[in-house]
C-alpha cells in the first residue's frame, strides 16, 4: 500500500486499513494516512500480529530522539523512516533515554525536559506514519547518553549512593528507585501529538531494559539477575500490552553447560555478570536479545573465520530459543567494522547474508529465529553520529538490495507469495 507521499509502508506486519488523522509535527500541521497497527504479541517461539506470524527485518538508528529535538534536524528522522519503509523494514531500535547530557530527556532524577519528550513523541508518530514499529531501549550500560554512570553520579552527588562503582546501578536501592521513577514517567507519558500513552501505543513493538547490561563486579550473575527480575516485573505492573526484552549481548554465563560456554568468543566473556539463558528465562521477559560483533570478539581472525564463527553463534542462540527458552530470539545488533584490514563493502554483504540466511531458515521452519537489526543506519550529513559500522543505505546498492530481499522473503512467509506479488510489488519487484 502506498502512502500519499509515495513511500510504501512496510510489508511484514501492517494491517491494511488506514485512518486519516490530523496532527502537528513541530510547527507544521498536516494530514496523513496512518496505518492501523495492532500490538505485537508472542505465541511460544513466534511473534504474532492479528493471528499471523510476525518477522522482524530491522535496523538501529539510536539518534532519532536527539535529532527530533531541533527543528533543523527533524527532517532526518522522517527521511530515515522513509528509507526504512522503502526497504520493507518492520522495526527500528532506538534510544528512549538520554540522562544528564546534551539534549537530555532526564535532566536530573525525576526531572524531564518537555522539549525532548516532545521529540520522542514525534519519533513515535513518524514511525507509525511509515508503518514501522519501535524497539525502545530504556538505559545504557555504556556512558554514552549518560548511561548507568550518570545514575551513580547523581546518587553520589546527593550523598545517598552506596558506592561510586558503576555497578551500584544494579544493587543500590536509591538508584533502583531513580530508575523506577524514570520507567513510570516514560510508560505513562501521553504523546502530545496522538494523545496516546506510550503504554497503550501499538507503534511501540517492545521495551528493552538496557543496552548491553554487564555487572562485572559480580561474575556469578546474581546481581544482574535480581535487577532484571525486579525491573521486568515493575514494567509489566504498569504496561501489560507490550513485549519486553533485556538487551543482552548473548554471552553464556556460569549457569550454562560447558558446551554452551564453549560457544563464547573466549573464557573471559562468561565473567561479565550476564548469563544469556538464565537472564532470558525470567517469566516477565518475552523474548531474548543477542548482539553479533565478530570484529570485537575475534580481532585477528580472517573474514571467513569470522563468518564461520558467527554462524555457530547465531545458530546456538536460535537453538536456545527453540529448546530451552521456548521464546523468540532477536539479534538486535549486528555489524561488520570498516576498520578491518583490507576491508571491502562486499565483506559486509557476505556477513549480512550469512546472518539473514540463518534467520530465514529458522523462520521457514517456524523456529525461534525471529529477526535481526543492522547496526546502524544514518542519512546524509550525520558524520558526527557515525562509527565504523554506519551505513547510508542509498549509497550501497548491493546492501540495499540484500536487505530488501530479506524483507520480501520474510513477507512471503507471513502473507504468502500471491499476496506479496499483489500488494507489495513496489518493494518486492
What does this structure look like?
This protein is α/β, with parallel strands linked by helices. The protein is 38% helix and 17% strand. The protein is globular and about 60 Å long. Mean pLDDT is 92; it is low at 1-11 and 13-34.
The number of helical segments is: 14
| Structural class designation | alpha/beta
* Residues in β-strands, percent: 15-25%
Helix coverage percent: 25-40%
Mean pLDDT across residues: 92
Secondary-structure element order, N to C: EEEEEEHHEEEHEHHHEHEHHEHHEHEHH
User: Per the principal axes of the C-alpha atoms, what is the gross shape?
Assistant: globular
Characterize the main sheet.
8 strands, parallel
Spatial order of the strands in the main sheet? 12-11-10-7-6-15-14-13
What's the β-strand tally? Answer: 15
Which regions are unreliable across 5 or more consecutive residues at pLDDT < 50? 1-11, 13-34
Radius of gyration, in angstroms, nearest whole number: 20 Å
Distance between the termini: 14 Å
Give the tags:
14 helices; alpha/beta; disordered N terminus; 3-stranded antiparallel beta sheet; 8-stranded parallel beta sheet; 429 residues; globular; 15 strands; 17% strand
How are the elements arranged and paired?
Blueprint: E1 18-25, E2 28-35, E3 41-43, E4 46-49, E5 52-54, E6 56-60, H1 64-67, H2 74-86, E7 91-95, E8 106-108, E9 111-112, H3 114-129, E10 133-137, H4 147-157, H5 168-171, H6 173-187, E11 204-208, H7 222-238, E12 243-245, H8 258-261, H9 276-280, E13 288-292, H10 294-297, H11 303-325, E14 329-334, H12 345-364, E15 369-374, H13 397-415, H14 417-423
Parallel strand pairs: 6-7, 6-15, 7-10, 10-11, 11-12, 13-14, 14-15
Antiparallel strand pairs: 1-2, 3-4, 4-5, 8-9
Helix pairs in contact: 6-7, 11-12, 12-13, 13-14
